[in-house]
Amino acid sequence: MKLFLTNQNKAERITRFIISLFLLPSFFIPGPSWYSTLVGSVGAILLFNALVGTCFIYRLFGANTCKVD
Fold it and tell me: Which in 44, 52, 54, 63 has the greatest CB count within 10 A?
């Protein structure tokens, strides 16, 4: 069993990447708060998912939107 088995299709990965680009700059907002840290963390997770192509929540529920294994 591979740790990083691709389970996202290309369109979904591109969408996650674009959303992460909007969320990641919240780390650099002056006067950081718990909210900006939370939003930035979600952006970092989405960026990781987009680059690697695997979503661990999908694996937990057995979902797979990728046609090629």
Answer: 54
Output the CA–CA distances (angstroms, integers) from residue 24 to 40, 57, 68, in the order listed: 5, 21, 30
Query: What is the value of pTM for the model shown?
Result: 0.81
- Which CA distances in Å does 5 have to 15, 18, 35, 51, 54? 19, 22, 31, 12, 6
What are the residue ranges spanned by the domains of the chain? Answer: 10-61
